[in-house]
């Protein structure tokens, strides 16, 4: 794995697509540029279900946050948060626990600017938004704003929702996840969603190639590979499953068999 001191957060470049802005386009947002839309549309040609996958991924985030807040988790570290849209982590958490605290982390300055302008918490709760990269876990954990918002002596939830696919194997994503979780106390939770090549393999391959051709590293992984990211954490029921199947709510997701993304929640004992 490349040392954190050797890695620099990329500068803003409207001509270079960014995963957060592509995702925003699939969700019907307007905070994207021509390069993002081109990559998004090229990917949709291979897999038209990507828009539904993006929506289901947001629903998965909301269900997991609601479940964890219901278990008493009052603080969340959301890495790779993406451009704000309805039903963000702090909105869901603070609807259950008004004093919940959330630190958002993303490497895209567009996300940073929109988040600071749009995100507002409850009177009791607190929010921070910082620009950092998942490939610099120690820098994330040492960030003064993160340390100000989150109490590392209490349990927290670390949210890695649809972001680990952008960390290539050469950067050792398992080690990155382990470092993020290392300082978390027992009772803390890890939330992961991740695209898989276990289903619709040819379409997934074409989407991955579209990303890589646009110089956006993307890696779909098998269920076994994704499970490894949880290390020795204990998976909450129903385990690592396709995201519509994680504690589904009514009405059920349409065509869940076309959702090629796994999700799960692990607890540190």
Would you give an account of this structure?
With about 270 residues, the protein is α/β, with parallel strands linked by helices. Helix content is about 40%, strand content about 15%. It contains 10 helices and 8 strands. It has helices at about 20-25, 35-45, 50-70, 90-95, 110-120, 135-140, 145-150, 175-180, 200-215, 225-230, and strands at about 75-80, 100-105, 125-130, 155-160, 190-195, 235, 240, 260-265. Strands 1, 2, 3, 4, 5, 6, 7 and 8 form an 8-stranded mixed sheet that branches. Helix 3 runs parallel beside helix 4 (about 90-95). The model has no long low-confidence stretch (mean pLDDT about 90).
Summary tags:
269 residues, alpha/beta, eight-stranded mixed beta sheet, 8 strands, 15% strand, globular
Task: Give the helix level as a range of percent.
Answer: 25-40%
Characterize the quaternary organization of these chains. single chain
Global Rg: 17 Å
* Overall form: globular
Q: What order do the helices and strands follow?
A: HHHEHEHEHHEHEHHEEE
Concise synopsis of the structure shown:
By secondary structure, this protein is of the alpha/beta class.
Write the layout of secondary structure elements.
Elements: H1 19-26, H2 34-46, H3 50-70, E1 75-79, H4 89-96, E2 101-106, H5 109-118, E3 126-131, H6 137-142, H7 144-149, E4 157-161, H8 173-182, E5 189-195, H9 201-213, H10 223-228, E6 234-235, E7 241-242, E8 261-267
Parallel strand pairs: 1-2, 1-4, 2-3, 4-5
Antiparallel strand pairs: 5-8, 6-8, 7-8
């Amino acid at each position: 794995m490349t040392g954190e001191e050797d890695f620099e957060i990329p500068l803003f470049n409207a001509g270079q697509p960014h995963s957060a802005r592509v995702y925003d386009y699939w969700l019907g947002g307007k905070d994207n540029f021509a390069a993002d839309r081109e990559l998004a549309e090229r990917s949709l040609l291979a897999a038209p279900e990507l828009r539904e996958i993006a929506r289901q991924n947001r629903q998965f985030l909301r269900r997991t946050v609601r479940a964890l807040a219901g278990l008493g988790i009052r603080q969340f570290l959301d890495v790779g948060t993406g451009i704000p849209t309805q039903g963000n982590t702090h909105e869901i958490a603070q609807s259950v626990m008004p004093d919940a605290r959330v630190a958002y982390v993303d490497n895209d300055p567009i996300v940073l600017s929109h988040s600071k302008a749009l995100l507002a918490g409850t009177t009791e709760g607190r929010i921070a938004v910082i620009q950092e990269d998942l490939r610099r876990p120690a820098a994330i954990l040492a960030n003064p704003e993160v340390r100000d918002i989150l109490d590392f002596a209490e349990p927290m939830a670390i949210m890695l929702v649809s972001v680990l696919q952008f960390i290539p194997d050469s950067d050792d994503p398992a080690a990155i996840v382990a470092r993020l979780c290392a300082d978390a106390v027992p009772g803390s939770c890890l939330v992961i969603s991740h695209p898989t090549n276990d289903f619709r393999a040819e379409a997934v391959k074409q989407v991955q190639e579209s990303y890589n051709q646009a110089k956006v590293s993307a890696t779909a992984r098998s269920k076994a590979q994704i499970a490894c990211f949880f290390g020795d954490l204990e998976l909450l029921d129903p385990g690592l499953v396709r995201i519509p199947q994680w504690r589904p709510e009514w009405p059920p997701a349409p065509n869940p068999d076309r959702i090629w993304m796994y999700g799960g929640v692990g607890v540190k004992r």
